[in-house]
Amino acid sequence: MSTAEQHEEQQDDQGEETVETQEEVHEAFVPEGEELVATSARSKLYRFAKTESGGEWKERGVGCVSFLRYKDTGRVHVVMRREKTHKVCMNHSVSASIKFDQNSGSDKSWVWTAPDFADGEMKTEVFAIKFKTKEDALEFKNNYTKFDVQEAKSESKPEKETEAKDEPKDQAKETQKSE
């Protein structure tokens, strides 16, 4: 089932039932200066919490992941909001340095480590995400990989391009000084 087919029922002010697709919910929470570039199917997110006796997986939330691009820099980050409360439970940049592993050999879940900013401060978290089907899990990883490749290409632009962009500004400054 695609995210467009998943519906969330709500009631408006008159008590009438309205139906909102997950895509509409995602669009409603896109901050100004960003654009929605992809979404995932519904999933369950976990984080690994270290304890005295080792550690355990704790549920972080259920919802869909949004891939958002900053319009000014072009960088992509992933955000997951809980279904009912819409509270952010994952927020980190897409990076080629983040590696995904299958969780316990399951083809429906992934594990990775990333510097997360969901709680308002940067903290390195170990995440696990589980989908209903292996196709949904593969689609999520493919989206992530697509954007981390784009990220790597944008970070490796030659310096000549940036120097060429700065050149007209330098010429304008020199023109102002000579006047």
Would you give an account of this structure?
With 179 residues, the chain is an alpha+beta fold. Helix content is 27%, strand content 40%. It has a five-stranded antiparallel beta sheet. Strands 3-6-7-8 form a four-stranded antiparallel beta sheet, with helices on both faces. Strands 1-2 form a two-stranded antiparallel ribbon. A hairpin with a 5-residue loop joins β1 and β2. The model is unreliable at 1-20 and 158-179 (pLDDT under 50).
What would the average pLDDT be, to the nearest integer? 77
Query: Uncertain spans, ≥5 residues at pLDDT below 50?
Result: 1-20, 158-179
Order of strands side by side in the largest beta sheet? 5-4-11-10-9
Helix content: 25-40%
Question: What Rg is obtained from the alpha carbons, in whole angstroms?
Answer: 20 Å
Termini separation comes to 66 Å
Q: Provide the β-strand percentage band.
A: 35-45%
Biggest sheet details = 5 strands, antiparallel
- Shape descriptor: globular
Number of helices in the DSSP assignment: 3
Structural class: alpha+beta
SSE pattern, N- to C-terminal: EEHEEEEEEEEEHH
Number of separate strands: 11
Summarize the helices and strands and which ones pair or pack:
Blueprint: E1 7-11, E2 17-21, H1 22-28, E3 34-39, E4 43-51, E5 54-63, E6 65-70, E7 76-81, E8 88-93, E9 101-102, E10 109-116, E11 123-131, H2 134-155, H3 159-178
Antiparallel strand pairs: 1-2, 3-6, 4-5, 4-11, 6-7, 7-8, 9-10, 10-11
